[in-house]
Specification:
7 strands, about 210 residues, Rossmann fold, elongated
Length: about 210
């Protein structure tokens, strides 16, 4: 007489535990939420020029012992490309000094720009900020102190950063203004992958806490 085959049945053929179903649902919800947020981040990762900007704000990034990090150099090179055709802009280099940096990000940007032919007189340094929200608020205060027209501005950062920048800019800035954006490439692939994982989470954090 042929023996009937026995098949392995998880949980003895019983229904999966409620906690496991809840865990799977939570994981799927988290993945879906992350995908939506990543889509929002990617939606702002492009150049958008409106009108004729008068002020260029370059947002800082990590400074290495030898100079700007690859991500920061990407931003600076993008700014230099634009300045070739628009050389008369007022430039704000915005970024303070971290505990593992030998100089402020603003000073590093100043050195790089002037080494590449930008007139030092057109560069203002904002060297106290330590995050994107402070970049924007401290830049705003600096431009107000200098009495500079901020009705048409241009901000330069890596593409992954610009959705959050625009959100915070709209939150911080009062009055009528036009904000254009330059999306620098992220030429270092490991950094690009890291930032596109990090940025959706940073977007949520900034939405709730940066005020």
């Amino acid at each position: 007489m042929r023996r009937k085959k026995q098949y392995y049945r998880p949980y003895g053929g019983r229904r999966k535990p409620v906690w496991l179903l809840a865990l799977l649902a939570a994981v799927l919800a988290a993945l879906l939420s992350f995908a939506v947020l990543l889509g929002v981040v990617l939606s702002g990762a492009h150049d958008s020029i409106t009108g004729e900007p008068k002020v260029m704000v370059i947002l800082g990034c990590k400074v290495e012992s030898w100079g700007p990090s690859i991500l920061l150099q990407d931003r600076l090179d993008k700014a230099l490309d634009y300045l070739e055709d628009h050389p008369d802009l007022t430039i704000v280099a915005s970024g303070g000094q971290g505990p593992d940096e030998h100089q402020s990000e603003a000073q590093c940007m100043y050195d790089y720009l002037t080494d590449h032919g930008v007139d030092s007189d057109q560069i203002l340094l904002e060297d106290q900020s330590h995050n994107t929200w402070e970049n924007i608020r401290f830049t705003q205060a600096l431009l107000e102190r200098e009495g500079i027209d901020t009705s048409q501005m241009l901000v330069v950062s890596n593409g992954f950063h610009l959705t959050r920048v625009r959100m915070l800019w709209d939150r911080a800035w009062e009055g009528d203004y036009t904000l254009s954006t330059l999306a620098a490439p992220s030429s270092h692939i490991p950094s690009r992958l890291k930032m596109y994982i990090r940025e959706p989470l940073a977007l949520v954090k900034s939405y709730f806490f940066d005020r």
